[in-house]
Write a structure and sequence with these properties.
The protein has 215 residues and is an alpha/beta fold. The chain has one domain. Helices cover 44% and strands 18% of the residues. The strands form two sheets. Strands 1-2-5-6-7-8 form a six-stranded mixed sheet, sandwiched between helices. It has a two-stranded antiparallel ribbon with strand order 3-4. Strand 1 and strand 2 form a beta hairpin. The two termini are 32 Å apart. The mean pLDDT is 93.
């Protein structure tokens, strides 16, 4: 019951401040939660899912959803929002993007949610990708941003070939990871990055400007 009250309060906050909550305020919601968890356990290494929850519930209210989330999906007419829905990629491998907004069964917007951007070891499947190889060669190392764009691009085929996507990064991007972000920005006009920390613009305004998303 204690946790239920806390998350209900969080959800009410997002709904009531839909048009005014800033990117940095969303970051601070995450920071406060992680800080509380760390004070109790001195460890946040395996703490996942909270950042996705914040953005999912924000979009839930932004798209005027009122129904129950069933099988990780909620519907409002022909519009649906899903968290962790599975899609078959161009390479035959499944991808489960963090959040997708679909219209009539087609992805309109894809949201990838990251706490931070960091260096990462590519999987064997990613190592075989010409896209990943090219980006690593230019950037020098594989990063979460490179891994992310490969997985998003892998979904862009058939009826899902025209969606817009965004990587929402809660914490500021370290300078050593900025180059990969710029490479991806320059190569993929349909994909953008949004950093929340120290960004004092309303989150809704950023979504409107970056994705042309009208809420």
């Amino acid at each position: 019951m204690i946790f239920q009250n806390a998350f209900t309060e969080l959800d009410s906050y997002l709904k009531q401040n839909l048009n005014t909550v800033t990117c940095d305020e969303l970051f601070k919601l995450k920071k406060d939660f992680y800080g509380m968890f760390d004070s109790l356990s001195n460890n946040t290494a395996n703490l996942t899912g909270f950042t996705e929850l914040i953005i999912f519930r924000y979009l839930y209210h932004a798209f005027n959803m009122t129904g129950e989330v069933i099988n990780r999906t909620v519907h409002n007419g022909d519009t649906s929002i899903s968290i962790g829905k599975r899609f078959n990629g161009k390479n035959g491998k499944y991808q489960e993007p963090d959040i997708v907004v679909e219209q009539d069964g087609r992805i309109e917007y894809l949201f990838s949610i990251k706490n931070i951007l960091s260096t990462v070891a590519p999987t064997e499947n990613e190592k075989r990708s010409k896209l990943v190889q090219q980006l690593i060669k230019t950037n020098g190392v594989c990063t979460v941003a490179i891994q992310d764009i490969f997985r998003i691009d892998n979904i862009r085929h058939d009826k899902h070939e025209d969606f817009k996507s965004i990587t929402v990064v809660f914490s500021e991007i370290a300078p050593r990871h900025q180059r990969a972000v710029e490479l991806i920005r320059g190569q993929f006009e349909w994909h953008r990055f949004l950093v929340l920390e120290n960004n004092h613009k309303p989150f809704v305004k950023e979504l409107e400007d970056i994705l042309n998303l009208k809420i």
